Amino acid sequence: MSATVSGETAETTHAITVTLNRQERSAEVEPRLLLVHFLRGTLGLTGTHVGCDTTSCGACTVLLDGKPIKSCTFLAVQADGREVTTVEGLVRDGGLHPIQEGFKEEHGLQCGFCTPGMMLTATALLAENPNPSEEEIRWALSGNVCRCTGYQNIVKAVQWAAAKMAEEGR
Amino acid sequence: MYPGRFEYQAPTTLEEALATLDRYGDEGKVLAGGQSLLPLMKLRFASPRALVDINRVAGLDRLAEEDGELRIGALVRHRDCERSELLGGRWGVLADAAPQISDPIVRNLGTVAGSLAHADPQGDWGSALLAADARVVAASAGGRREIPLDELLLGPFTTALEPNEIITEVRVPDPGARAAGTYLKLERRVGDFATVAVAVHVSFADGTVSRAGIALTAVGPRNLRATDAEAALAGAPLDDEAIREAARLAAGAAEPRDDVRGSADYKRNVVRVFVERGLRMAARPEERGDVPRAAAAPPGRPEPSEEFAGEETAEDVMKEIREKEDQ
Ligand SMILES: Cc1cc2nc3c(=O)[nH]c(=O)nc-3n(C[C@H](O)[C@H](O)[C@H](O)COP(=O)(O)OP(=O)(O)OC[C@H]3O[C@@H](n4cnc5c(N)ncnc54)[C@H](O)[C@@H]3O)c2cc1C
Ligand code: FES
Ligand code: FES
Are both A27 and A50 inside the same structural domain? Predict the structure, then answer.
């Protein structure tokens, strides 16, 4: 898109194509549209939550090219040409991802508000470090706030998933 | 919340980025990690007419050592520094600062150069890089210049950058063969901005201090350099007496204020204790043990002791650190 300067009319929308949960999605977006609003509003994927809306809680965490980012603090237009994974994308072959099973088995959630963000951050951790220590898990999740669980069972859920993934050779 | 309307440009070369920024005069803003700018825009504290997103500009993500100097490109993220093997050892001050900035998710996007351009007096890179005597390369459509960090940071959220300038690189000089340092930060909880933090970076030659860099976070209108303490240390051995005197001088250089994070007196005392502790670690880096630098590992940083008022010996500090690391 060409630059617009004083006197010219500003281009108001940009065409973007995002590989979202392994599928290409295209849309026309206003630059100020936040990624989280694109996901929830434009695409109707409401698994990504908005908690604080001030970059502090991690409820809106998604993976951008495999790394956790806060989608309330990223523009949809910045995601053009990149890969985004939301909690909806964790499901494989119609079945739960080991991290989802782990949260279920270990009672890693209560109200569930923080859970999508927790699971995505944990997935990125396990991709980088398949056998993390408890301290490494707590450290990696330190940008995701949970008001319910006290974190104990979230840590266990991640450990459960790590063991399951090692067993499955993932 | 969402930002006001703006025009969005995503150039792919530096020349294009500089030309675009130049055209917008003082109405354009650089978008790097967006971890300070976008929150400000959502709150409508900032409403630039245009954003020039530099994330697609090739060649700005280099973190490398060249001619002994460390070069940190504009798109080097906090995360990259946290994981880089380059930053340990002589640049321990930078290695120790990186994992203490914000939280792991913000660190995936936020940049070193963006932190300096943002000039938050509570920002951590400002002090770590002041202590390390860094300078920035600022490019514009008209050319490029180097700005020492001490001259870049003017006051709260204010720098010497012109609106058409982009920091392309941060350069950290060679500290010599024997150098050590650390970054000590007191925060209320993981991910918080500093209540107080102290950067210490010391070069040695022939058993004496050849250069000492000491900088303070969150105790003034900008990241402050404790110049009197630095001068007192230069040319002398780093012994107990020198360390205590430097800590006293650094505490005097702090300009803390009472706020929700603590009283001015308390913060000044933390400066003293941290400078003392940091200098002791610099004096005997071999005793601090291996700082875990592995992916996603927590930093092996000493926790602040319960009692700030008492005198500490090097033995006490090292014992405390070892105990923490053994756990
Ligand atoms: C919850 C939270 C906690 C945080 N905690 C800490 C903390 O503990 N310590 C700390 O130091 N920081 C903290 N930060 C701030 C974070 O480190 C930011 O990443 C950093 O301040 C800005 O870097 P950025 O790349 O995100 O810059 P952006 O947000 O993209 O930009 C910030 C400003 O710098 C300008 N700018 C950016 N890059 C350049 C460039 N190359 N040349 C010229 N101008 C440029 C922009 O125009 C803008 O004015 C925190 C942020 C959040 C959201
Ligand atoms: S909603 Fe994005 S961090 Fe809280
Ligand atoms: S389960 Fe309720 S916030 Fe985490």
Answer: yes
CB atoms within 10 A of CB B314: 17
What does the alpha-carbon distance between residue B71 and residue B87 come to, in Å, rounded to a whole number?
11
| A116 in any annotated domain | yes
Within this chain, do residues A111 and A147 fall inside the same structural domain, yes or no? yes
Contacts of A53 in chain B (CB under 8 A): 1, 42
Classify the complex by whether its ipTM is higher than 0.85, answering yes or no.
yes
A28 touching B (Cβ < 8 Å):
no
**CA B21 to centroid of ligand 1, rounded, Å:** 18
Chain B residues touching residue A138 (CB < 8 angstroms): 298
The predicted structure's pLDDT at residue A94:
87
pTM, two decimals, is: 0.91
pLDDT reported for residue A3: 37
* pLDDT band of B293, cuts 50, 70, 90: very low
Mean pLDDT of B245-267: 97
Which residue range is the domain that position A50 belongs to?
10-87
What is the per-residue pLDDT across A98-153, written as a single tens digit (0 to 9) for each?
999 999 999 999 999 999 999 999 999 999 999 999 999 999 999 999 999 999 99
* Whether residue B212 has its Cβ less than 6 Å from ligand 1: no
Nearest-CA distance A111 → chain B (Å): 22
Locate the chain A residue with the closest alpha carbon to B4.
Answer: A32
For residue A109, which atom of ligand 3 is closest to its CA?
1
At residue B83, does pLDDT exceed 70? yes
The CA-atom distances, in angstroms, between B323 and each of A83, B94, B131, B185, B299 are: 43, 24, 28, 19, 15
Of B8, B9, B191, the CB nearest to A143: B191
Of the residues A71, A87, A103, the one at which a domain ends: A87
Closest Cα partner for A67 from B104, B108, B80?
B108
Q: Is the predicted pLDDT of residue B302 greater than 90, yes or no?
A: no
Q: Check pocket membership of A53 for ligand 2, CB cut-off 6 A.
A: yes
Decide: A147 in ligand 2 pocket, CB within 6 A. no
Class of domain B63-172: alpha beta
Task: Please classify residue B292 by burial: count the beta carbons closer than 10 Å to its beta carbon, then call 0-12 exposed, 13-18 middle and 19+ buried.
Answer: middle
**A30 CB within 8 Å of a chain B CB:** yes
Q: How many CA atoms lie within 13 A of A79 on its CB side?
A: 37
